[in-house]
Design brief:
The chain is α/β, with parallel strands linked by helices. It folds into two domains: about 220 residues, no CATH class; about 200 residues, no CATH class. Helices cover about 40% and strands about 15% of the residues. It contains 14 helices and 15 strands. The strands form four sheets. It has a six-stranded parallel beta sheet, with helices on both faces. A five-stranded parallel beta sheet has the order 8-7-9-11-13. A two-stranded parallel ribbon has the order 10-12. Strand 5, helix 8 and strand 6 form a beta-alpha-beta unit. Helix 6 crosses helix 8, helix 9 runs parallel beside helix 12 and helix 10 runs parallel beside helix 12. The chain starts with a strand and ends with a strand.
């Protein structure tokens, strides 16, 4: 099977992870643009080179494409890009022409512009550092109460709303191409979402027009990659705290139970009973409120025993956002997890991120024609070292992007995980976006 993949940007979870997942099955011919073509925190993607790459890849069975990347220059760029609707419309029509010639199943997604509840402008326009929380409140109140008094200068509010309107109109244009039959699947993602807001209203409007919306963002290309493998897996979700599965995760607008269900379905899989399941999906969910270690938001930690089942299984550790639950990992690693029944662990970023990436890798492993165990093991080593060693522990010890200190502090976690998976190679670390939020793990 030949699959082409255009990611959101050049972060490890967007660029390296899909390559490793596709590498689980050596019969898959996986194409991805050169990393330097993609955007990062400050640079836009090289859209002309991406169009050229897409135009020259030849016949494919499936194309998974982040529309934000090729139209705006990236997910972050979609919030900052200064191009007019007409300029962006030209890119959309150029994309339609190229995709029509490829004659493949096209799996695409476009984000509904997020509204982050903070005053950090690292991924937003400059004025977010002063007015971010106030814009969020205006958005929330205008939806929930049908009116809001903006505590934001008029020119800033007008600029923000104009950017939203432009992006919303582009999304409606994508939806018209969907109705023409261009896309096999088109997803509108609700990135960093709350229960109310202008983004939620836009999602509701797109749904009325026939669009399909989905909570999440970074994991959606991976969910679509799983969907492109047009075979089913029967999955049984099992919650460690079943009486709390109605609670809503941080950065999401639906319950963790609904999030699990939607991730399974988007990946082209089916929810089943424990008896009929191909794979059991254990969800280490939270009580009362999801914790977040880096934000110093605590929650009640896992306090039970965990024995691995006799059937194939995978673990979504979502008790905390942006990192693992130390108690759960400690209990889990008492078991022998390196056998063939183990289909993956994940605890990165939001609940949706964790679930989508986990299910994708599991589906590739389950339906592989030519299994590459090394690729699967590297994914697991990465997730444990990153989500557990780094995000849940070492990140809190760092004040800056000091690689030598990171390498020193993470060594005990690295050694334990490498021993479990019998990996003897060298592991190197870097901060690809020169910030503590994400770390890159490279194998020798």
């Amino acid at each position: 099977m030949k699959i082409a993949f255009i990611p959101i940007d050049n972060r490890p979870v967007c660029y390296t992870l899909p390559k490793l997942i596709a590498g689980i099955d050596e019969s898959v011919d996986f194409s991805i643009p050169p990393r330097e073509f993609l955007g990062d925190l400050t640079k836009y993607a090289k859209t002309e080179q991406l169009f050229k790459w897409l135009n020259e890849i030849g016949k494919q069975d499936a194309v998974i494409i982040s529309l934000d990347t090729i139209i705006y220059g990236g997910l972050i760029s979609s919030r900052r890009c200064g191009l007019s609707y007409k300029e962006l419309e030209k890119r959309v029509f150029k994309l339609r022409e190229i995709l029509s010639e490829i004659n493949a199943d096209i799996y695409a997604f476009s984000s509904i512009m997020r509204i982050s509840d903070n005053n950090y402008n690292e991924e937003e326009k400059e004025y977010w550092s002063q007015y971010g929380k106030k814009i969020f409140k205006y958005s929330y109140d205008s939806h929930k109460y049908r009116h809001a008094k903006p505590d934001v200068p008029q020119e800033i509010l007008e600029d923000y709303l104009a950017t939203r309107r432009r992006n919303f109109e582009i999304n409606k244009l994508f939806l018209s191409l969907q109705k023409e039959g261009l896309f096999n699947t088109l997803i509108f993602s609700k990135d960093d979402c709350a229960e109310f807001g202008l983004n939620v209203q836009e999602a509701q409007e797109l749904e009325k027009l026939g669009g399909y919306t989905k909570t999440g963002a970074d994991e959606i290309p991976l969910s679509l990659l799983a969907r492109a493998i047009q075979k089913e897996i029967k999955i049984c979700p099992i919650f460690t705290e079943p009486e709390y599965k109605h609670l809503i995760s941080n950065y999401e607008d639906i319950s963790i139970e609904a999030s699990v269900k939607s991730q399974i379905e988007l990946a082209g899989c089916k929810i089943s009973s424990k008896e009929d399941a191909d794979i059991l999906l254990y969800i280490n969910n939270f009580k009362n409120k999801q914790g977040e270690i880096v934000m110093k938001i605590d929650t009640e930690k896992f306090s039970k025993e965990f024995t691995i089942p006799q059937k194939p299984y995978m673990i979504a550790d979502v008790r905390f956002a942006n990192g693992a639950d130390n108690n759960f990992v400690t209990e889990f690693l008492k078991n022998n997890i390196s056998d063939d029944k183990f289909y993956g662990y994940s605890a990165w970023n939001t609940s949706a991120n964790t679930l989508g990436s986990l299910i994708c890798a599991a589906k590739f492993k389950f339906h592989t024609k030519n299994y590459n165990k090394e690729s699967f093991d590297k994914i697991q080593i990465t997730r444990f070292i990153d989500d557990w060693g780094y995000q849940a522990n070492v990140r809190q010890l760092l004040q800056n992007t000091d690689i030598s200190l990171l390498t020193e502090k993470i060594k005990p976690y690295e050694q334990k995980i490498k021993q479990i998976f019998s990996y003897n190679g060298e592991v190197k670390y870097s901060f690809p976006w020169n910030r503590l939020f994400e770390v890159e793990i490279e194998f020798s």
